[in-house]
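Let us practice reading a record.
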Amino acid sequence: MNIVMPMPAILSQATTPDNNLTGEKSVPVVKKSRTSANPYIRAGNVTGIALEFFVRQMASRFITRTASDFLTKICNVAAASEAYQLYYSKATMATKADVCAKSVQRYMRVIEASGIMTRTTVTDSIKGHQPNVYTFAPEFIAAARSFFTEQLSPASIKNLRTIAQAELSKLVDKALAPFKKTFRKILSLDAAKAFLKRPP
C-alpha cells in the first residue's frame, strides 16, 4: 500500500534534517551584509577617495584653497599603505597636478608649515639627494577616520554627495576638534617661510 504524505510535511522534513546525532550544539552562520560596509574605510584605513574628500572639505581652515586643491590631486597614493606617505619628486607632483615645479615647492611649504604633513629628507650614499618623503600627520588621518566613522551615520555615508555644505563643515569641525592645536593656519608662503625658519 502506497502512503502519500502531504506536501507541507515533505517540505518541513527536507528543510530540517536531524544531523545532530552527537548532541553537539549547532552554530548559526551569520552572513555579513554588504550594505553595512563603509567604502571610505578599508580594514581601519582611510582610503584614497576618503582622504581626497576630507582634504577638500577642510580647505581654508589651515591652508589656502589652491594648496588644498593641489593636495587633493596627489594624496591618493598616500593612502595606498598604512604609512600615508608621498614619495613623488617635485617634477612628478607638478605633472600630476598640472602646475609648475615652483608652485609645488610653494604649496608643499604651506602644507608642511600647517602641520598636516611632515617632510623627511632622503639622501643616498651613492645617488646623493633623493626626493623628500612627505607623511600625513597621524592626527590628520585620525580626524579623517573620525569623520567617516563617527561623525557620519551609515545613511549619511550612502548619501554623502547630497549633504549640504554647511552640514559637512560642521562635521569636519567636530572631527578636527580634538586635534586643532596640532595644526596651524598658514594661508601664505611668507607665513610658511617664517614658521619653518623658527628654531626647533
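A brief commentary: DSSP finds nine helices and five strands in the chain.
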